[in-house]
């Protein structure tokens, strides 16, 4: 094995971790792949000479590439509106896309639009991947105290205030997650079991195909309307919406829709699809609490000791 092949093998051993970092920062699998490829190109040009800790070096490069990409998004934001969802990726099954949509990276993506790119990079690196703050400071070109403040501000911005007690929120989340699973699977019977008889669905007209009513009433009509638009569910993830459990739809890292869901008991009594840019900006979006184990990807050399 020559030196280039050896370097490539060392890079491949770290690709999974690098992609996980980039995906959680960018919220887009395609953009994450681009960032990782750029890291390989830079490593290939450098030849590995003088790099003592390859994991740290590659994490720094990928993070800075992601930071540049996030800054570019901020400078040239997109305001997608209406029925503009990407095609299903070739070879990607619904299970794979559901895992992608449910990832913490996607949830963070939506609510971290408000924090600055540097804040986002800081909280993802430190809180999700255990990167020490001295490394975060170097990556973001900040002092150590400033790097800690970046992460602290991001945490504050992404943590919402629930509008209901914890036990009630947990019950609502179970109902909303069951609703999402049924919508993804196009399971009409399951949806009928989750919807109140007098449920109402309202939607911004631009989000609907021609001829579909903006308002539907009754469990059968709402269930059938949900099945009709089930392609959108593959990009949905639970989140706090104005303090209550709802859903966000953000394909390829761009927020398209928010579902404000009303739950009473164990039934969905109403949901509204919000899509207009002005209305989306008026919503308070935040992450739901997730188990600690879900925040760290399975990858080699992922512990702080590797630094």
Automatic annotation (TrEMBL):
- Domain of life assignment: Bacteria
Question: Care to name a GO molecular-function term for this sequence?
Answer: sigma factor activity
Record SUPFAM superfamilies: NTF2-like, Sigma2 domain of RNA polymerase sigma factors, Sigma3 and sigma4 domains of RNA polymerase sigma factors
Q: Which Pfam families match?
A: Sigma70_r2
Q: Could you state one GO biological process linked to this protein? A: DNA-templated transcription initiation
Domain spans labelled RNA polymerase sigma-70 region: 11-74
| PANTHER family cross-referenced by the UniProt entry | ECF RNA POLYMERASE SIGMA FACTOR SIGI-RELATED, SIGMA 19 FACTOR
Q: What name has this protein been given in UniProt?
A: Sigma-70 family RNA polymerase sigma factor
